[in-house]
Amino acid sequence: MKLHNDVVINGKHRPKGSNVPWYAVYPFFLVHMAAFGGSGFLMAYSEDPPPLLFMYAHGGIAIFVYTMFYKVFFGHEQVKWMFINGLLGLFGVYVQIGWILGLFDKNIADFPWYRHVTPVLYYILYTFLLWQAVLELSGAAKDETRRAGTEKGYVVVSVLVYLAIWILERR
Q1: Each residue of 106-135: pLDDT tens digit?
Q2: What are the Cα distances from residue 55, in Å, to 38, 104, 141?
Q3: Which of 57, 55, 10, 65 is nearest to 33 (CA)?
Q4: How many other CB atoms sit within 10 Å of the CB of residue 8?
């Protein structure tokens, strides 16, 4: 992947435009974000949640930092579309968070809307990272023909997963 800004990785300066191998980015961020996103999820939906200000500070700082890293690795335009598509995909986010909460015998409607802000933003960031990994690992990041097929497949699979969860949750 080509860098969109200068960055230091493992103590080594990498100038804008230089290539960084996928294994220098995805494993770290997937694990790191799963830990922070998981803790944000647990804080938002626990029986005894921390103060809202703490939850927003904890999640907000991490989300801001991840967004800045995303701009470095993926570029401003991709990050802009991440948020646009995330907002357009609230149905999928709503359905999946509702499903996850259902695993803990909780209902998404039992929580006020502002308790969902941090988990939803983490979800958007995490699914964007998964999407970038799919593009990179499938070779679609550098091949427009392959990219078109990968994009279609990703949308179809995502919609099928969301619909299946949504239908199963209503039984």
Answers
A1: 999 999 888 888 888 888 888 888 888 888
A2: 12, 20, 35
A3: 65
A4: 8
Most distant CA atoms of the chain, gap in Å: 54
Are the CB atoms for 29 and 1 separated by under 8 Å?
Answer: no
* Distance (Å, whole) CA 9 – CA 69: 11
Evaluate if residue 14 carries a pLDDT over 80: yes
C-beta atoms surrounding 72 within 10 Å: 18
Length of the chain: 171
DSSP state of 116: S
Identify whether 144 is part of a domain. yes
- Domain, as residue range, for 137: 7-169
Nearest residue to 56 via CA among 124, 129, 99, 120:
120
- Whether 120 and 93 have beta carbons less than 8 Å apart is answered as yes
pTM of the predicted model over 0.70: no
| Residue 1, domain member (yes or no) | no
User: Mean pLDDT across the chain, nearest whole number?
Assistant: 87
Please check whether residue 143 lies inside any domain of the structure: yes
Helix, strand, coil distribution of the chain in percent, nearest 5: 75, 5, 20
User: Kindly report the CA angle at 57 between 55 and 61, in degrees rounded to 5?
Assistant: 125
* Number of structural domains found in the chain: 1
Single out the residue of 79, 88, 107, 75 nearest to residue 158, CA to CA.
Answer: 88
